[in-house]
What does this fold into?
Amino acid sequence: MQTYNLSFENIIDLGLIGVRIFIIVVMTIYVIYTIILSRRIKIMNQNLKTPYEKSFIKLSKLHMFASVAATAIAILAITL
Amino acid sequence: MKKPRYLDSFIKYPPDTSFEGRDEDEKVVFLIRQSRLTLFWWFIATIIFLIIPIFLMPYLAKLEYNGSFIFNGLFILSLNIFWYAAVFGFAFRHFLDWYFEVLLVTNKRIIDIDRGATVISEAPLSNIQDVTSKITSIVGQMFNIGSIVVQTASEQNNFEFHTVDNPSVLRDTISDIITKRQGDKYANI
It folds into this structure.
């Protein structure tokens, strides 16, 4: 049976990979939050109609796009 | 012509403003929001959050282990985008909660839109028995900020709207429209 020597350096390396994965998990959860927020804005606009309705929708889409872009770049950064 | 101020905390006859279930002959007379002073703390927090990466990111970019950088340039870029998107999301959500939490007084009823337009309650003006204004805290007394309590004929359905500017003026204005409405109703008897 093949065995691996778990040295202190290996533990640090694993820890660093863990930190990067944790950051990406947080980013992914945030993407879900931005989707929920945009749905919520639709409900808000439906219940109270104001002149800023379209601006809020545009801002929520921009917010969602930025969070998706951040997550995609982070995934790309650790795979390269 | 005076430009309408959509972001005011008290708007008389708000233009282009409506709500779901509005009758054709129904007009929004007043739109009341919480005082803009309630935005102060998250505004300050947003500014602090915007400044943090200026100091934090160069430090993270320089972190090394075994002669190589822990976070490469692309990862730092993604962290920056994520941070600013999250700060924007934080500020945006708070702003929306403030913007959509309103007390609407129409020529027919009073509508309380609460918790980001997820809790909505209403009562016809004819059911309103009493309007009370309260200024309780020291901060409230300093800035003339308080609460309005609208008591209805129903035992469970009282409207409480907190941290509004000039609560006594609002109480008087709401009372006037209710008195007028109820006066019109009894004038026909």
About this structure: Chain B touches chain A at residues 6, 15-20, 65-66, 70-72, 74-75, 77-79, 81-82, 84-86, 88-89, 92-93, 96, 99-100, 102, 104, 113, 116-118, 120 (CB under 8 Å). The mean pLDDT of chain B is 86.
